């Protein structure tokens, strides 16, 4: 596989103007060894070929790692977005309209849409991404979602416990029985992770624990959607179960922050959600000052956050969440990798995957300084140019 020839002193940010910058004629060369990934296969043709890339004074950074997306879906919820901009609050129940559209779609429709999102991610510098199920909510539809997701990424998450589907509205515990039984059995072979939406209007902490423990017993890693719409037990449950990540973390009390600080659970913040629900942003500064590992992810989904842009998330995190540029870029690269318990991505160092982004800018500061401007000049995944 391809890897950077030299390790920058700021391993997460290679900035052409700084001490950790790549030389204009930085070489990317074959190192031969595997990277010990948690996921997909490395490419290694064992040739001695060296590709010389002239960055011409522009910044190079690791490919972004988006540890939270929901990309297997059909339908459109732009009307719901417009209603929110006119003053309506976001509610978990909107998920059910995407469930109906997704169930009605063919495999090929879902596959084509997913392929479009993969291109969209790469064009914006994301070289590793997680994809969740959660818009099927039957055994067959959830199995289909994780199977299609597995065609595009090894980081697949079974989220059968996204919301209680309408047909189980009168008996949510019967739906949990289905999730921990036949649905998990059908989905686990395609998945690396299990997730649950632990929130008022979705699943209680007790139901969430059942789902996560069943997944862990089946060999899946644990992740949690928690504390998005209000305070609750999601963060503490995630820490108790040594989840790789608890995502959203918008409404935290001091005990939540202390629990995260004393754990190896990453707090993954999703600024696209508050951007498109017009809720207050999570307080990244409070978490960082307490010593919590923070990741940034897109949460790309048709309801609460229909953006796949980590540059946008970085810009918002710097402007409105108290993060420095370096912290935000780290959170969208190495932080995302930590949230996926990966060490082979999100960093530029010998032996890591050559997943690299070249910016049409002299420093990574421009990601926040020039919001909305397409600054991605080149993207390499496993050493191969992809955009
Ligand atoms: O992460 N919070 C739960 N699930 C998604 C929203 C999904 C939807 O609204 O369709 C989220 O924000
Ligand atoms: Fe989500």
TrEMBL record:
Q: Which residues bind 4-imidazolone-5-propanoate?
A: 77, 135, 162, 228, 304
Pfam families the UniProt entry points to: Amidohydro_1 (PF01979)
Q: In which pathway does it act?
A: Amino-acid degradation; L-histidine degradation into L-glutamate; N-formimidoyl-L-glutamate from L-histidine: step 3/3
Instruction: Report which reactions are catalysed by this protein.
Output: 4-imidazolone-5-propanoate + H2O = N-formimidoyl-L-glutamate
Which positions does UniProt annotate for Zn(2+) binding?
68, 70, 225, 299
User: Per the entry, which co-factors are needed?
Assistant: Zn(2+); Fe(3+)
Where the record annotates domain Amidohydrolase-related, the positions are 60-383
The EC number of this protein is 3.5.2.7
Q: Which residues bind Fe(3+)?
A: 68, 70, 225, 299
Which GO biological-process labels does this protein carry?
L-histidine catabolic process to glutamate and formamide; L-histidine catabolic process to glutamate and formate
Q: Where does N-formimidoyl-L-glutamate bind?
A: 135, 301, 303
The biased composition feature labelled Gly residues covers: 31-41
Query: In which compartments does the protein localize?
Result: Cytoplasm
User: Which GO molecular function terms does the record list?
Assistant: imidazolonepropionase activity; iron ion binding; zinc ion binding
Its domain of life reads: Bacteria
Protein family membership: Belongs to the metallo-dependent hydrolases superfamily. HutI family.
Q: What does this protein do?
A: Catalyzes the hydrolytic cleavage of the carbon-nitrogen bond in imidazolone-5-propanoate to yield N-formimidoyl-L-glutamate. It is the third step in the universal histidine degradation pathway.
PANTHER family, sorted: IMIDAZOLONEPROPIONASE, IMIDAZOLONEPROPIONASE-RELATED
What protein name does the entry list?
A: Imidazolonepropionase
Recorded source organism is Agromyces atrinae
